[in-house]
Amino acid sequence: MKKNVVEQKANLYNSKNCDSRSDFIYSEQKFYSRYSWCLNPYPKVSQVMDFIRIEAKDLEKIEGSWQINESIMTIFSLACAVSCATDDFLNKKRYGQFSLKSLQQWRIRWEDTIALLLDSSLAKTSIDMNTCQKSALELADLSRADFPTKLLNQAVTTPRAFRCQDLTPYDVLTLSKKYCEENTNKNSPILIIGLRSAGSYFAPVLRADLAKRGYTNINTVTLRPKKGASRNEKETIQKFTKQDGSVIIIDEPIYVGLTLKICIKILDELGVQRQSVNVLFPLHPCATDLNKTEALSALKGCNFITSSPDEYYKFGKLRKATVEKQLEEYFFARDYKKVSLISDANVHKFNKTLSNQSENSWTEHLKRVYGVQLERQSGEIETQYIIAKSVGWGWQSYRKFFAANCLKDFVPSILGLRDGILYSEWIDDSANSAKEIDRNKIVESVSEYIASRVKGLSFEEDPSSFISEAQVGMLLVYRNHSTTLLGRITNRLKIDAFRYKLSTLTCLSPCLIDGNMRIADWLQRDLELVKTDYAQHGLGKIEVNVTDPAYDLANSILSFEMSEQEETDLLQRYMSISGDMEVIERITLYKVLTGIQTMQSFGKIHDDKLSSRHQEYSDDFIKAWTFTMIQLARYTASFVPKLVVKSPFKTIVVSDVDGVIDQHIIGIPSNTPSGIQALSLLHSNGYPIVLNTARSVYDVKEYCKAYGFMGGIAESGSYIWDAATDKEKILVSEETLTKIERVKLALEQIPGVFTNPYYRYSIKAFRYGESITGTIPVSTKLINSVLVQCGAEELFVHQTGTDTAVLSPGIDKGTGMIALLQLLDCSTCDTIAIGDTEPDLSMFRVANRSYAPSHTNVRSAAIQIGCHVVNKPFQKGLLEIVRHIIHTDGGKAQLDEKPSFKQKEHNKILFDILSDVEKSKPRRLSEAIFNKDLFGAFKNYFL
């Protein structure tokens, strides 16, 4: 695969100083290859101690200034990770508390040794190697102490500042300098309060720099304000309040400001005077206006010092002169003799493309495109375009090296990695161009790409089983919330138990997954697919935190809108390459999770800075919503036997979908165990089912294929379809369709109004709200004004809780039902209609029998028509209806017999979520209290 691309690279980069396998120069290949452990951003404390000992031992052997600096920074950041984990451990409430005095004393020595390391390196103009080596070896010695097993098994955390916010320890020096310019009394006591996790890394740097500048009385403490201050932390702060000194709070960029607000409140309660408080933090490029945060109100009376994004250390590293010097090293190693940066029309165009693609997010890295004019030894001149992108700091950036090596056939050609900046080829291609690639090629490339990650980026120990960061699976609980007191208590218990349950899920091939397989990150190069942004989204504070490649496969199926056959081909090819034969048993859960995760992006629609991309985000939301809904339908349908009785039929059941077969669970319509049992009883007793719904044509066809239904009426009577023959009929006139299209285009021109692209013969218009379902209806006044404007006043408008439907006049579920029965040649059949809302009344009127579950909002009108309203709601009501139908018709089947729901652990998680909604509140609370997973979570946390 990609032979022509590989040969082109080998010819271009053929040099003894350049590793042609990976395109990294030899010095980088040699240095970074030592850090294979860096793939896991959440190593355990015991592992970090091992890394520190290895790095300290090797420090004296390392040659080259940048290599020495990187090694020192690795030791520093690993040591700070241990500090953070130790402070969290010391301040954790636990039962059976043992003496921690020796650990507290060890922690002080550890901090002092970190200060010595920084004093001899970061805080000096040149590195004092003797002192550096001495302090590194001292850290190694301290790492051999006798630690509690619980601490050693704790995963460390790395701040977003170093991982995805383009910050470095040098940015702390910028803040320190500004503080010193405003506070010149070097004898005044200083208490540095670092807000964990970032504060565990920032505070030692600030302490070392202040000491270098002559400040003599410095103490430090770290806090995790949202957890409250521990007794020791309070004592440290209260002791300081008796002195006439300065408090310095230091943290990473402020997002909302809540953590800082809580910290200031703690200081207020401990008697710290606000005029003595200085708050230091960098400003993030997407949050330079503090008026939009809670920071200004929280900091009232305090002094705060900030640094702007253009003062970032990495911002300076992207200046032309610095980049040109770095590129000289890379290209000279590739036998070029002259390297010059140019600024032509293409450079401006490519950087504008980057700007347009920006989402103004907290995880978006600094990046810039440069034009490079190169002269070969032969005198031949050529131009290349290179993108320099920040990818983290220190060892947190090294995983990009391993990912680039492993995926060299699938990613842009690499020049090198230095100072946390990756230099690679710029591919001039439009976003979403991957859609133009042959579909078979897409399946081939994606399957091979994911399988390559499994083979080359695997974990010996799965970190997702012990990290503290929330996994994407937690969305299943967060979206299934309750507003009642009993419901909130139950949900709180379930959150802890569910987090533990997710941590116990097994995967035979855990690896550093991509985590973001969106089609926009796949570009064309020589008719091949090339993946960009390939190493940042699998694990991290706000990432998916999944190590199962099934997530990437599911994400690809969604992003590329793969058909069922393409999905089958993708999985088969992946399994044949990776050997992961059990992925089929795991992928359903990850299909649901990737859909929900994608839906979370609807919040971007409220960002005015991204207004040009609001339609794109809306389309992504609807696509993900529909995908997740269909996957849940396929999952629940797998328990329902297909109808075995052939036509002609005596009786046909015509059913609505929403509120009857489905109800909203985790914010998505889905069936439940009672609904599954009801449909199973109908099919096993020979009752064919057709759908009559406001859902789209696509939805109806997918549900019919999944459950084995005979066909359906879509878009509230606008369209009918026979599943057996694939015959269809549009019941809306051409003239009306023209008006509907005109209204749709007019609505889409209104800012903040969107339409569902799956609807072809009617309109579903909506705005975006704040709820988990995402959408809300358009106002009646606005929709009516658009109808008048378009000369389409006769179109019918129906408002629901989530959207506004615009329909053809004279068409409803009743007319659609009559037309479908004619298409199926079943006009004389006994028809049984099941529905729950006002539009269903029209089909009740033309059916021989009709039923509604107890939650119906048209009870009186339905009863007047002769509808039988049962005692139970939703799918429990459907099951009651089905039992009544079979009993009334003289059926002799076991009406209480349930389908077999036995399944593997991943699917059982889904089933438990779908089952939970049908349980009483007391039962849910009881099960939450006596859940074995809750005990596991309790034991993990407290013991």
TrEMBL record:
<dbReference type="GO" id="GO:0005829">
    <property type="term" value="C:cytosol"/>
</dbReference>
<dbReference type="Pfam" id="PF08282">
    <property type="entry name" value="Hydrolase_3"/>
</dbReference>
<dbReference type="InterPro" id="IPR029057">
    <property type="entry name" value="PRTase-like"/>
</dbReference>
<protein>
    <recommendedName>
        <fullName>HAD-IIB family hydrolase</fullName>
    </recommendedName>
</protein>
<dbReference type="GO" id="GO:0000287">
    <property type="term" value="F:magnesium ion binding"/>
</dbReference>
<dbReference type="InterPro" id="IPR036412">
    <property type="entry name" value="HAD-like_sf"/>
</dbReference>
<dbReference type="GO" id="GO:0016791">
    <property type="term" value="F:phosphatase activity"/>
</dbReference>
<dbReference type="InterPro" id="IPR023214">
    <property type="entry name" value="HAD_sf"/>
</dbReference>
